Amino acid sequence: MISQAQSLSLQPLALTLLWITPALWSVNYLVARSAPGVIEPHMLAFGRWALAGLILTFMARKELWRERRSTLQAGGQYLALGSLGMLICGAWVYKGAQTTTAMNIALIYAASPVLIALGAVLWLGERFSWRQGLGVVIAMSGVFHVVVKGEWMSLSQVQWTSGDGWMVLAMISWAGYALLQKKWFSPLGATARLAAICMGGVLVLLPFAVWELQRAGTPAWSAKAGWLVVIAALVPGIGAYWAYGFCQKVLGASRVATSLYLSPLYGGMAAWVVLGESMGWHHVMGAALILPGIYLASRKAPDSAGA
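Above: the chain's sequence. Below: its structure in token form.
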């Protein structure tokens, strides 16, 4: 548990990571778009978290060994977190991305920070001021502006597919993952705890990955598949999940959740740089709303009631 003094000293780092973490997650957009026909969803998620888990376990081996009894006693929690964060928010996202559009994914995930903020206030007892609420609304409008490319009437033309169901489950699951991480006390530090969650995730992913390997039509393993696993493990895996968990411990679930609104903006920038997709004025206008919105939402709620 982080003391109040430690929390204050770590706040500058956490506030910096708040803006960097969605950039790490945006790499997962590129991975998801490159995966169809190369590697199956559950196999990609299994490889991603198995590799990430090995690295994290090695890094935190002394702490994990020291806390082995408490970790085993909380095994059910790590299986639950692994199911929510690695199976549903991992493999099911890759699966949903095969049959839905980027617009639908962004629209569905726009609800996740709202769910987390509400859950943090109602379930975890965190304070959430009117200023932070205004920040959420402003940031969400910026996300929608980016998604619809500045043409708001196109929202009425959105068509929903079966893949959207997977994305809705992933969005709800992420809210549950974020809230339970804050709700359940753990004596482990950020690295060791993520390693333990990876262990739970790998266990629940294993039978699905084996099933995909035995299924007819499964793509043969290739160098590209290996690179996708490595990239997914290191950047949106270890990097993003560790940073998000660290920020939650220091800043609280509701303040950190709004940073997710940066993901569509960063994702568009990544697609522009890596895939050569065009950037438009709607990205600029979206950024003009998202950035100040996140600034307002990430500020600490004043102690005075109703402030």
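Residues 17-298 form one domain.
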